[in-house]
Sequence to fold (362 residues):
Amino acid sequence: MNIKQVCPNIDSNELALISECISQNWLTEGPKTKLLAETIKEFTGAKYSVMAPNGTLGLYLSLLACEFPPGSEVIIPSFTFYATAMSVLFAGLKPVIVDVDPHTYELDPICLKSAINNYTVAVIPVHIYGHCANMKEIIEVCTCRSIVVIEDAAQAMGVYYSGKHAGTIGDIGVISFFADKTITTGEGAVLLTNNDKIYNRLLYLRNQGRINSGSFIHEEFGMNFRITDMQAAVGLSQMQKLESIISKKLEKYEKYRSLLEGVGDICLGKKETESSFVPFRFFFTSNHKDKLSNLLKSEGVETRSYFYPMHLQPKLISYSSFPCPVAESLSSYGLCLPIHNDLNNDDIEKICRIIINYFNNL
Ligand SMILES: *Cc1c(COP(=O)(O)O)cnc(C)c1O
Fold:
């Protein structure tokens, strides 16, 4: 492929910071991890931040920290990455899968409301493709029923809702730093919370049931959810570039939008009015999705389809009690185009020309 779907924005700056780990002879979680957590805490305005090995384990850890009774129900949207559902199952809880809004692709508050029962303990809104779910309504529905809100903000670094950073609106939030996310540490994630009790449990859970390493008396249950300082080194460099990564992504999104909006039957996704936007991909639906995807592939452009719905996943079908026609339709007609740093204006024009020519020749 000439034009890849994903390409992390890394250079000699990341290498220089990794080299420091080597020259200072400190590879495991240490000063750089502490500094990265602190930097992200300050950037997001969260009261507490805790690093995790990846977004999937971050969601799992969040659920463990809440100490829900086994078998309790956690409501998730059907239109998400598999990790959202698996973290619930692996935590011994039951995922209840509901539909999303057809315009924003975000968890539909009306579907959420209709799925709540006496066993519901939490909801995981997923901030999809770089904008936030309808947090105002979700929080309203959950607060009066004492339902915990865990934000899957994996794709939402740098995204704000009513002035609050994604992941700091609910009880806990998880931002992923996988290689295709807004910033990356290779594998990695951060957990954000304003809740003292949750933060305290996270500290024990992530570090073998103790707060400080080096002690062999373990007061609590715990596992190893730490990261390495080499990952944190990459993260610190990425944090320095965050603003420029975001503005470049926005420029690319605008370039695509100016060329493709109104072309053929292309329908762009929309964001909630209260949400800001850090494009994760350039994403749209079209009845011609498969033909466009094949055509672009033949021209060396790698595309991505949308998520396959959770309620239709082979291992999750038995958990689906609510119809999710929107998630099904998005998965049939959605297509993502690359928006990464290596993509230049000529690439975007080439991609758009292929699409425009396709529709002109129909
Ligand atoms: C990437 C992603 C995750 C998982 O994060 P990892 O760091 O890859 O484990 C979870 N949810 C969503 C919506 C994601 O996009």
Remarks:
- The pocket of pyridoxal-5'-phosphate is lined by residues 54-56, 80-81, 83-84, 126, 152, 154-155, 176, 178, 189 (CB under 6 Å).
- The two ends are 26 Å apart (CA to CA).
